[in-house]
Amino acid sequence: MNKLLIVGTVAFDAIETPFGKTDKILGGAATYIGLSASFFNLQSAIVSVVGDDFPQEHLDLLTSKNIDISGIEIVKEGKTFFWSGLYHNDLNSRDTLVTELNVLADFQPKVPQNYKDADVVMLGNLHPLVQSSVLDQMEKKPKLVVLDTMNFWMDCALPELLDVIKRVDVITINDEEARQLSGEYSLVKAAAKIQDMGPKYVVIKKGEHGALLFHNREVFFAPALPLEDVFDPTGAGDTFAGGFSGFIAQSENISFNNMKNAIIYGSNLASFCVEKFGTERMESLSKAEVAIRLQQFKSLTQFDIEI
Ligand code: AMP
């Protein structure tokens, strides 16, 4: 079975949307990526850090999804990373209210020995120095390295972020962040500039407006499924990244054409994530539901036109 190595935050989130508010619940980029990638036939492991305030039941949840958590360090008397966000009425924009790095501030990641030859490495959102350190520890060159990041790291660790961006094959980033990183308003120009920084494939996520995949001068678009109920977009980007990297790891095919399918899988899984608060929907999701919605995606975009 192929191996997917996931790095990212395992966190507490407090979320407010127009539909409600949560106290500290399970969150974190690696959590969402792991839950999403668990829908594929592969072995996966998370490298991250939490404090001893982190409930065992959250770790048990990850284990129950067959995710190897031996790379999640638990710091004695440490406090887990905490993030709080407030969504506006359109649900497409949000304000970060609090980011407390806590144990993440001096985290030295340790890749489990049996994942130093992982086929795909998914560098989820956290400090770019941690992302680089994970790449340094790999003993075999991965077939594909995917990186996700956010404006927070552009604001506070840009040189380190640019260093790790140079080393990856694919970057997934949202539209505003692509503009910030490149200094270009046009997403076509932004994607071209970001390709010059290193990654040959650039995925730009546009929330409810879908996602774009750029490679050289080619571009592919996947819509987001129009949903009746959207409660909480938190983790949609990470769930997308988990679906993308999980599908690629399972299929072992890193061609542009297969990446199109990976984007559809990512969008499909992300469409479930937003239907309930936090990780709730992903925890109860079944493979059968995923398959049915994949068919809906196909119908949404297929048309027969003679040209
Ligand atoms: P998304 O909605 O896909 O952007 O991801 C939201 C998740 O990212 C939340 O569960 C947060 O815990 C986590 N998160 C928020 N800010 C950061 C940050 N600066 N670094 C790493 N993870 C973060």
UniProtKB/TrEMBL annotation:
Gene3D superfamilies: 3.40.1190.20. InterPro entries: Carboh/pur_kinase_PfkB_CS (IPR002173), PfkB_dom (IPR011611), Ribokinase-like (IPR029056). One of its GO terms (molecular function) is kinase activity. It comes from Flavobacterium anhuiense. Residues 21-281 form the Carbohydrate kinase PfkB domain. Keywords: Kinase, Transferase. It holds the Pfam family PfkB. One of its GO terms (cellular component) is cytosol. This is Ribokinase-like domain-containing protein.
